[in-house]
Amino acid sequence: MPTITRDVVVVGAGPSGLTAATEMKKAGLTVAVLEARDRVGGRTWTGHIDGAMLEIGGQWVSPDQTALYETLETLGLETYPRYREGDSVYIAPSGERTVYSGDSFPVSEATQAEMDRLVAILDELAAAIGAEEPWAHPRARELDTVSFARWLADQSDDEEARNNIGLFVAGGMLTKPAHAFSALQAVMMAASAGSFSNLVDEDFILDRRVVGGMQQVSLRLAEQLGDDVHLNAPVRMVRWNEDGVTVEADGGIEVQAKRVVLAVPPNLYSRMSFDPPLPRRQHQMHMHQSLGLVIKVHAVYETPFWREEGLSGTGFSAASLVQEVYDNTNHGDTRGTLVAFVTDEKADAMFELSEEERKSRILESIARFLGPAATNPVVYYESDWGSEEWTRGAYASSFDLGGLHRYGRDQRTPVGPIHFSCSDIAGAGYQHVDGAIRMGRRTAAAIVQAAQPA
Asked: In what residue span(s) does the Amine oxidase domain sit (predicted)?
């Protein structure tokens, strides 16, 4: 295959890389997008399993995600609300199951007061520290060198309150145990969603879905880019100097360009060789960033049976194997679909089991929320991004203790002609498709500006 010559080569055909490529092409630059997988979409993937359409990857849209909404409108994609009519279910640490309505968990007045107090503290910190440059705040080092679990323990002696607050950050977002990331990382996660109150409000953070699936964002962007997108092309080598780059990928593909955009999560940078090597600062930083672990469980039933019992399909329990469950029924579908999540150390334990035993244990846990009918789906599927060759975790990377304040300011800094763009390093929209799009736009704007004649 002859060498391809372009202004910019983009590595990764997820929402961030495709957005960057689209914006640069609009500005008159030539682009090539190299994707390791046999599909576009990155960590968004709308698959069909046993006749059921499933959102194997990212799927939700929240009201603050304006960049994503703008892209959906441009692409002619519509959204619909997550089903949430009826009561929710809470399973206490004791195992007691309570059906409840409203926004508050059915806990004791004292525990609720503690939860409200902790949320207020975190809201105040999120507002003060922000998502764009949390490392610049005067308290950054203090909050980054203590785990979120330790920080919560220092704030409150109510274990149920602490675990319920931790549920939304540790299990719901970072997919790591609360002892494995810092209080600063938790505050940044909250700030990226607008506030901690937003983060713990499932009706906000899990508001709507895309009709036909989130992967359509990438599919339609890629369609517009046409032959500039190359699949099954894992990048193996990036040769660079101040004058430009030569990028080598499988299939004999070689692209010469002025700049390269790495639109993949930081844990995959090391899958490529760089000549010369990246600077020491980059090597160190990338070793302090890692993805978490989650099993996203999809269970499809002949009917949404829980609705007949007045249940919304929503359930929470910090103490259970399945910590969160939601109605995930597709737009216009007569069948009912549930989505449930098993994270971090609980996921570790499940992967020690056989496939059948794991399925049985997980469905039994869902049934504790919604009844015995939950144990008999017509379609069952587990999204295991931890074993996916070109992702290796979920949902996005975060820093280990002390890493965010130490390295955060450099994670978006270009190295010569090498630029970085992904949801993992976003401020607003961090970990979400919205953040991926924001970073794609931001990176494209910087390259377009640099390409203008002086």
From this structure: 16-447
**Is residue 259 scored above 80 in pLDDT?**
yes
Q: H helices within 266-328, ranges in order?
A: 280-287, 305-308
Q: For residue 435, which of 40, 132, 55, 128 has the smallest C-alpha distance? A: 132
Helices of type H across 226-370: 280-287, 305-308, 344-350, 355-370
**Binning pLDDT at 50, 70 and 90, where does residue 2 land?**
confident
What dihedral angle (degrees, nearest 10) is formed by the CA atoms of 163, 167, 170, 172?
A: 180
List the one residue out of 189, 279, 206, 197 whose CA is nearest residue 240: 279
* Cα–Cα distance, 416 to 233 (Å, whole number): 24
pTM of the model: 0.97
Angle between helices 66-75 and 215-225 (to 10 degrees): 60
- What the block records as the tokens of 99 is 């059906």
362-365 long-range contacts, CB within 8 A, separation 24+: 362/295, 362/297, 362/321, 362/322, 363/299, 365/320, 365/321, 365/322, 365/340
Query: Would you list the DSSP string of 97-144?
Result: EEEE-SSS-S--HHHHHHHHHHHHHHHHHHHHH-SS-GGGSTTHHHHH
Interval 36-68: pLDDT, tens:
999 999 999 999 999 999 999 999 999 999 999
What's the rounded Cα separation, in Å, for the pair 169 and 164? 10
Share of the chain above pLDDT 70, in %: 100
Q: Do 10 and 31 meet the contact criterion of CB atoms below 8 Å apart?
A: yes
Domains and CATH numbers, the chain: 4-43+214-278+415-451 (3.50.50.60), 46-62+79-84+205-210+294-387 (3.90.660.10), 108-196 (1.10.405.10)
For residues 316 and 167, the answer to whether their CB atoms sit within 8 Å is yes
Question: 229 with 13: CB under 8 angstroms?
Answer: yes
